[in-house]
From TrEMBL:
Location of this chain's protein in the cell: Membrane
Polar residues bias (residue ranges): 224-233
Keyword Cytoplasm among record annotations: no
Positions of transmembrane segments: 12-31, 59-83, 95-126, 167-188
Organism the protein comes from: Drosophila grimshawi
Keyword line: Membrane, Transmembrane, Transmembrane helix
Disordered: annotated span: 213-233
InterPro entries: TMEM179, TMEM179-179B
Keyword Membrane: yes
Primary residence: membrane
Alphabetical list of PANTHER family matching this protein: TRANSMEMBRANE PROTEIN 179
Pfam families per UniProt: Claudin_TMEM179-179B (PF26158)
Record-given protein name: GH23571
Length: 233
C-alpha cells in the first residue's frame, strides 16, 4: 500500500504540472495566431524585398500550429480528469483502469514530443529568415517587418510567445515520460500481485486436495473385523 500511495501522489503531482504546461502551450500560441491574423509562424519562410525593406512572407500550413493547440487542449483535458479521478479514488484500481492509464500516457508522450519538434524546428526556420536582416531573431520582435494588404501583423511579442510555447511543449514531454513510467509501474505491480494471489490460491487448493486424498487412503476397519490384539485375548 505504501508504494501505491507514493505512485498515486506522484501521478497527481505530475498531472498538476502537466495542466500548467498545457496552458503554456495553448495560451501563447493562441495569442500569437491572433496577432498574426490567423497565420502560423512555424516553418514560415520569406525573402527581404530590396525595394521597401519589408519581409515578403510565404506562410506555412496552419496545421503546424493546429496540432500543438490540439495537443495542449488534449493534455489539459486529460490532466483535469485524471486529477479529479485520483483525488476521489478510494478503492484499488482495476487492471483495465491501469491499462487505460498506460495507453493515455503513451498518447500524451507521442503528441507532446511531436508538438515540441514542430514548435522547435518551425521556430528555427522562421528565425533563419528573419536573421538575414537582423542580428538575432529576438531583436526583430516589435519591428514593422511584414506589410499586409488587408492585415495588420503584430510582431511585438512573437519571440516570448513562441519561447513560452516551446518551453511548455518540451516540459509536457518530460512530465509525460514520468507519468507514463509511473502508470506502467502500477500496471506491472498490479499484475504481480494478481499472479501472487492466483499462485497462493492454487497452492491452497493443492494442499486441501492432498489432505483429502491422504485421509481417504487409510480407510477405517470393517465392522466385522477384529484387531490382532482382540484375537489374542
Amino acid at each position: 500500500m505504501a508504494l501505491a500511495n507514493v505512485l498515486l501522489l506522484s501521478q497527481i503531482s505530475g498531472h498538476v504540472l502537466l495542466l500548467i504546461l498545457s496552458l503554456c502551450i495553448v495560451l501563447p500560441l493562441s495569442i500569437n495566431l491572433s496577432q498574426f491574423c490567423g497565420h502560423c509562424l512555424l516553418f514560415t519562410t520569406g525573402k527581404w524585398r530590396v525595394s521597401d525593406g519589408m519581409f515578403d512572407v510565404h506562410w506555412a500550413s496552419d496545421g503546424f500550429c493546429t496540432f500543438p493547440l490540439i495537443t495542449g487542449v488534449f493534455l489539459f483535458t486529460i490532466s483535469l480528469v485524471q486529477i479529479y479521478r485520483y483525488v476521489r479514488m478510494k478503492d484499488e484500481e482495476s487492471f483495465i483502469a491501469l491499462f487505460v492509464d498506460v495507453v493515455l500516457g503513451i498518447w500524451m508522450l507521442a503528441m507532446s514530443i511531436l508538438s515540441a519538434i514542430f514548435i522547435t524546428l518551425g521556430f528555427i526556420v522562421w528565425c533563419d529568415g528573419i536573421s538575414e536582416r537582423f542580428p538575432s531573431c529576438e531583436t526583430a520582435a516589435g519591428q514593422n517587418i511584414i506589410l499586409g494588404d488587408k492585415e495588420k501583423i503584430n510582431t511585438s511579442g512573437f519571440y516570448i510567445e513562441m519561447g513560452t510555447t516551446q518551453f511548455g511543449a518540451w516540459g509536457a514531454f518530460a512530465i509525460s515520460v514520468g507519468i507514463g513510467v509511473i502508470a506502467l509501474l502500477k500496471l506491472i505491480h498490479n499484475h504481480q500481485v494478481r499472479n501472487i494471489k492466483v499462485s497462493m490460491y492454487l497452492e491452497r487448493q493443492r494442499l486441501v486436495n492432498q489432505q483429502q486424498f491422504d485421509g481417504r487412503s487409510t480407510p477405517p476397519l470393517a465392522s466385522g473385523a477384529t484387531s490382532d490384539s482382540d484375537q489374542n485375548k
